[in-house]
């Protein structure tokens, strides 16, 4: 169902609402998209919550690696909660409105959680570096205090990024069209509705995104340079394979996460395209959060064992 609204030369900041056009151009396919996205979202939500619970219950998983994984699942869950339910509502009822303050709030939280994910992935890379390069000192270096500091820094960095992104965009006046060509308040489509010269704001968003993505990715790259050097020094092929297998899940998530994020936020404005951007956004907001528990469940034997124990009710019998 497509909602068509007349453009008016009014200032949205004076109290008007934005309207998500979402997938209105897909016509009758919207109900099919609703069914597909709802199934994916329920699987994502259930899987991430299950991962958190299993890691909490299984004492064998009470290590820094799985602590960071549980917080990554928590961050992904919060990220999707702020976006997917309203998107699903829009697919059923057509264009969904959101207030100016509500849009700014959604952008703040979605940007904050997305940035926190980047820093958590960097933290997980550092954890793998310590485990492989200095295994004898792993327990003493990755103590609970340092883990808590790294997690807190990740979420604090996310909040600062979200606040900066929101202030850069929402200090501008919004007038004319109040239709957002997207399914949530993401920075490119909202910024396109601003009045006047938005060049400085676009540059600010780009620099802020570059700072977060390149900094966190550089930390991951440095960690893996040392990890690769340490693995190559292992004499046996089996030893090298086992060492690398502990990083495979993390590397897979990193490639998917940074690939989508870079394409979304580091492109020139001239190559934006509505339907293609929505497809990438769906991958980033629906598919990527689903990959986290799937990849770690399929490639990690400890998590597989903990999941089997949970499904058999082992933890319930113990309690």
Structural notes for this entry:
This protein has 319 residues and is mostly helical. Helices cover 72% and strands 3% of the residues. The chain is built from twelve helices and three strands; from the N terminus they run βαααβαααβαααααα. The longest helix has 34 residues. It is globular.
List keywords for this structure.
single chain; 319 residues; mainly alpha; Rhopdopsin 7-helix transmembrane proteins; 3-stranded mixed beta sheet; 12 helices; 3 strands; 72% helix; 3% strand; globular
- The total beta strand count reads 3
How would you name the CATH homologous superfamily?
A: Rhodopsin 7-helix transmembrane proteins
Briefly note the structural class of the backbone: mainly alpha
Kindly provide the name of the CATH class: Mainly Alpha
Distance between the termini: 50 Å
Q: Overall 3D geometry?
A: globular
Could you say what the CATH topology is called?
A: Rhopdopsin 7-helix transmembrane proteins
Give the oligomer, counting copies of the same chain as homo and different chains as hetero.
Answer: single chain
Q: In the CATH classification, which architecture applies?
A: Up-down Bundle
Q: Radius of gyration, rounded?
A: 21 Å
Q: Which percent range describes the beta-strand content?
A: under 5%
- Give the SSE order as H and E letters: EHHHEHHHEHHHHHH
Total helical segments = 12
- The largest sheet has its strands arranged as 2-1-3
Specify the biggest β-sheet.
3 strands, mixed
The amount of helix comes to over 70%
Low-confidence stretches: 1-10
